[in-house]
Design goal:
Blueprint (H helix, E strand, L loop, with lengths): L2 H5 L1 E5 L5 H10 L3 E6 L2 E5 L2 H10 L5 E10 L3 H9 L13 E8 L6 H20 L12 E8 L2 E7 L21 H10 L8 E3 L6 H11 L20 H12 L10 E5 L2 H11 L9 E4 L12 E4 L13 H15 L4 E6 L14 E7 L2 E9 L40
Parallel strand pairs: 5-6, 8-9, 8-11, 9-10, 11-12
Antiparallel strand pairs: 1-3, 1-4, 2-3, 4-7, 6-7, 12-14, 13-14
């Protein structure tokens, strides 16, 4: 019996900064007894909840089912214990597999070497039992195996997601540095957008924020386009129960009201790219797109604005970025009265150049970026920050706690440093 079968306990990998929101989402999907730890959340779930989480979670990166856990201070122990796992109960020689590893406070120093040890153990186990071995496929394997070693204790798991969940399947084309899907989903969630107020991304790029907004508004499961899941490899996989979970979620899909979501970009290639990606999803053709410079738009007052402005790649020279952000801030201040803007800064040093004081800021770290999501309540004469800038963790920011319910600052309140 595998470890997860003994205690119904799993591990959800999630980006730093999304632990609290991820825990709330997992509870809504049926998880119990959650506990946050490094880069993720332990939780308990029955099989229906496990399938539901993999199919519907928008914030989680992977869900791992622990197979075995043991003390591990050297590679020989890792190899030997991995050999004892009954791999043939999970997949056969005809399936391709891959191993990934993460190490924290371990005497083993190299994650790739840890992954190699487990790969060798799997291969040798199959050779001994079957006389042949499965192939390794690093890009799109049939089976993903995870290795996590913390404080010299190892856990070997099967990835029940079957690969990163941020790969929704709608991204047919992409520009440079596309936003990760789970990060875009977090922006939509933190915006607390309920689908009633029109939402616009005036710097849409390849359309990731628009696609996540569409899936949220139309209740399209995050895994709607995925071809397979890793939990189908578990020895206790229940096909009937999985079908019931999927059908129940799919019945919740609903049309997008006209004019509810729109996007634009100055680049024709970006607009074409976004249109192609959105067409992959139900009701994607209902998202209005146009080619226009954001600073020429005159229709954003009173709306919810979400965007991921370029931070060096798409504008070419990074030296032009401060001036671009200043002009964007001037536009928001003068032309977008009554709107709420949620802007993701892949390079957080660019935030002060916008020239507006955020209502709140949140760290969103994903894809190697130490980014920040900032919210702005825009009104006539929106107040600029102090000359010292809106420093990270300054007074009144609560170390970047969510202050989404904060009212607009009083005109007599001093700017926060």
């Amino acid at each position: 019996m595998f470890l997860y079968q003994q205690n119904d306990r799993y591990f959800a990998m999630i980006a730093e900064g999304l632990e609290e929101a991820g825990a709330e989402e997992l509870r809504q999907l049926g998880a119990r007894n959650l506990r946050a730890t490094f880069r993720g959340l332990y939780f308990e779930a029955d099989r229906s909840a496990l399938y539901r989480i993999n199919y519907q979670s928008r914030l989680v990166s992977r869900v791992l089912a622990p197979l075995a856990a043991f003390a591990c201070h050297e590679p020989e122990v890792l190899y030997r214990q991995a050999r004892h796992v009954p791999w043939r109960e999970l997949f056969g020689v005809e399936q391709r597999f891959a191993v990934f590893a993460n190490l924290v406070n371990s005497r083993m120093r190299h994650s790739r070497y840890a992954a190699l040890c487990v790969k060798d153990a799997i291969v040798d186990s199959f050779r001994q039992e079957c006389g042949t071995r499965p192939d390794v496929e690093r890009i799109d394997p049939d089976v993903w195996i995870g290795v996590f070693i913390e404080n010299d204790r190892a856990v070997i798991s099967l990835d029940t997601s079957g690969g990163p969940l941020h790969r929704r399947g709608y991204r047919k084309r992409a520009l440079e540095a596309p936003m990760q899907e789970t990060t875009a989903a977090a922006v939509i969630r933190f915006a607390e957008w309920d689908g009633e107020r029109p939402l616009v991304d005036p710097l849409c790029g390849s359309g990731t924020l628009l696609a996540e907004a569409l899936m949220h508004a139309c209740r399209i499961p995050a895994g709607y386009l995925r071809r397979r899941f890793g939990f189908e490899r578990l020895p206790d996989f229940d096909a009937r129960r999985w079908r019931e979970v999927k059908e129940a979620a799919d019945r919740q899909i609903r049309p997008l009201p006209e004019g509810r979501i729109a996007g634009s970009d100055i680049a024709a290639e970006a607009v074409a790219c976004a249109a192609e990606n959105l067409r992959s999803l139900p009701y994607g053709e209902s998202v209005a797109l146009e080619r226009i410079d954001v600073r020429r738009r005159r229709d954003l007052a009173g709306k919810v604005i979400v965007c991921n402005p370029p931070y060096g790649v798409r504008l070419g020279k990074k030296s032009t970025l401060p001036a671009f952000y200043k002009s964007l801030g001037d536009f928001l201040k003068r032309r977008c009265a009554g709107a709420r803007a949620f802007i993701y800064f892949g390079d957080r040093s660019l935030l002060p150049h916008l020239g507006l004081r955020p209502t709140w800021r949140k760290p969103l770290r994903a894809g190697g970026l130490d980014g920040r999501l900032a919210a702005f309540d825009l009104y006539e004469g929106s107040r600029p920050p102090s000359p010292q800038g809106d420093a990270e963790g300054g007074q009144g920011q609560g170390r970047e706690r969510d202050r989404g319910n904060q009212k607009k600052p009083s005109s007599s309140a001093p700017p926060r440093g």
